[in-house]
Structures are given as structure tokens and as C-alpha cells.
Write a structure and sequence with these properties.
The chain has about 120 residues and is an all-beta fold. It is built from no helices and 11 strands.
Length: about 120
Amino acid sequence: QVQLVESGGGLVQPGGSLRLSCTVSGSIIGINAMGWYRQGPGKQRESVAGISRGGSTNYADSVKGRFTISRDNAKNMVYLQMSSLKPEDTAVYYCNADVHSGGSWRNYWGQGTQVTVSS
């Protein structure tokens, strides 16, 4: 059984910062790509940032220069450092990972953590 658990969400003022963390646990043989997605009120889920096992990153245009994704392969964790937050960044943020467990690769999602940017 593989679980992804996010933490670090909350309420922050515009211009502020937050750091999200995601821990992957369970019977894990390996983890390839990891990423963060978000779903704002009345919107579809969208990709925010992704990172390969080797550390290559990609970002949505809307967050480039403000968000930084990183990972710790030894701890099976992925992070999202968010700075210069805007009200339009308000969303539920989800962790995603491709995990090798039980003899097969599968894509897993966390339960989400709420980020609210408001004064």
C-alpha cells in the first residue's frame, strides 16, 4: 500500500510564502517523476510543477520564478516552495508520483492540502 501525504498548506497574505511537503510511504521499490498539481475553486486540476528522479524540473508559466520544486530521494519526499503568492494561487494542492511497488509502476495522488492567499 502506497500513500502520499501532503502538509504545509494554510492561509497566507498576498506576497507571502509557503512551503508544501509530500511524503511517499509504503512498500516502495522506486519513485520516478513527482509533481504538484492544484485545483482552484470552479477550475479544473492543473499541473503546477514536476521533477524527475534526476532533478530536472518543469513549471507552469503562471508560477515560473515564484515556485520551486525539489525532492529528497533518500526520504521519498517532494517539496514546493511558493513565494510571492497571489490570490489566484488559492487552490487545493495535490502531490503526485510514479511509484514502483508490488512489482508494478503506478501513479498515485495525495489527498490534497488547502492553500488560501487572502488579506
